[in-house]
Specification:
The complex is a heterodimer of chains A (360) and B (118). Chain A is α+β, with helices and mostly antiparallel strands and 360 residues long. Chain A has helices at 57-61, 69-84, 90-118, 122-143, 163-189, 191-197, 205-210, 216-219, 250-274, 324-335, 344-350, 355-359, and strands spanning 4-9, 21-27, 30-37, 152-153, 156-157, 291-299, 302-310, 316-322. In chain A, 50% of the residues are buried. Chain B has a domain at 30-108: Alpha-Beta Plaits. Chain B is elongated and about 70 Å long. The chains are: A alpha+beta (360), B alpha+beta (118). Chain A binds chain B through residues 52, 55-60, 63, 123-124, 127, 130, 133, 140-145, 148, 150, 158-159, 182-183, 185-186, 189-191, and chain B through 1, 3-4, 6-7, 17, 29, 31-33, 52-55, 75-79, 82, 91. Bound molecules: iron/sulfur cluster (2 copies).
Chain lengths: 360, 118
Amino acid sequence: MSDKSTIPFGPQHPVLPEPIHLKLVVEDEKVVEAYPAFGFVHRGLETLAQKKDFNQMVYVVERVCGICSCMHGQDYCEAIEELMGVQVPVRAEYLRTIWAELHRIHSHLLWLGLFADAFGFENLFMQTWKIREKIMDILEATSGNRVIISVNIVGGVRKDINSEQAKWILKELDDVEEQLKDINDVVMNNYTVKERTVGIGVLTKEEAYELGATGPMAKGSGVDLDLRTTGYAAYKYLDFEPIVEKDGDSYARNLVRMREIFQSIDLIRQALSKMPEGDINVPVKGNPPAGEVISRLEQSRGEVVYYIKSNGTKFLDRLRIRTPTFANIPALLKILPGSQLQDVPVLILTIDPCISCTER
Amino acid sequence: MLDMLKSVFSNLSRKPVTRMYPYEERKPFDINRGHLENNIDECIFCGMCQRVCPSNCIKVDRKTSVWEYNPFECVLCGVCVEKCPKKCLKLDVHYRSCTDKKYNIHLEKHDDSEKAGA
Ligand code: SF4
Ligand code: SF4
């Protein structure tokens, strides 16, 4: 008789509000195989591209994901702009960068809270979400909405940040940084956190590369891959180095995300100080010409790819979105076998899963 | 183990960061997108808002001078406000209060009345 048994993880699971189903084959407490199942929250957003015109689609793609929504809009707009040969004003590039980095901070803080929650560190969860609220306030005060900020349009952005707001943002960021430093010590040196993360779920550099991991998953394994270095939006004017850690375990991925929060704060400071005056958008006339375009950018979870095929009318022929969580699933399936059952929620959270993104 | 001690002490002496909603409400930001309003006296029923709306929640009938809007489908993006040639649409900073019945906002030019109905 085989001593293997199968345990379902999800689609409803206390650690993860989103529906992902994993069939875990366990031997005693050790996971030996893992099989994923998706499709619980498929919404058919890609097909909507054939029903809504290309300007309306900006607001649809923003709803692919609630956490990096602004970057979905940005990537989509950059794709259409490339297709139409539109050059957005420099100030709009800076503003896009600022909002994208704010989203990165709040995404990583959200993740850190959920992650702490996954191994029962409720206090850390509350502290991080308290800090995150300041970022949400900045987003709300600058765009008019907390989460789906709807600032990107084809041709630039819709809202501006004036100098008074910029000063207030810098002050709030100082405060956030100060509070984060306390949290940082907890996340990086706490016995409980280390016990649950160091040496667990190791993904080597070669594996990360071969399995096509992206974002902090790849960077935590030493793969130096950050699309911001390609210089889209205003990143070409800013000074930064991709953050890479060598170890490839859960702890290294934590470290990457923690350090990225500080890096994002620095990038926002740089962007606010270098941002030139000027227009925030340019008028866009006509429809996108027939053709295909691929646009990529670095979200908080990794690389997102937009493929757009246009037929010259205001409706697109095809829109295809490859989200970072989708790319990280093979890496997750690689690190699950061999782990203990109690580590499975923690490992799933170290890829920072966004299932709604994945299923679109 | 003692890493959290600093925040423990600072939290002891600080007032709560949460609010006792609904008794205590935060003042909305000036540009908050709360709910959509139409000053129907100014509206010329051009249908621009209907054409640009990404969620197709506005129906404009030029013949009968009716502007109909479904607040439950509106995503409060504010595009209609930007594109309205008469600037009669406005996003108010306060949210609509919750309800147990869905309704459409039905505005007509001649009697200026706001009726709630299906
Ligand atoms: S765009 Fe403005 S003027 Fe035109 S129908 Fe809509 S509300 Fe009326
Ligand atoms: S705010 Fe946006 S979704 Fe709502 S009616 Fe206006 S265009 Fe439509």
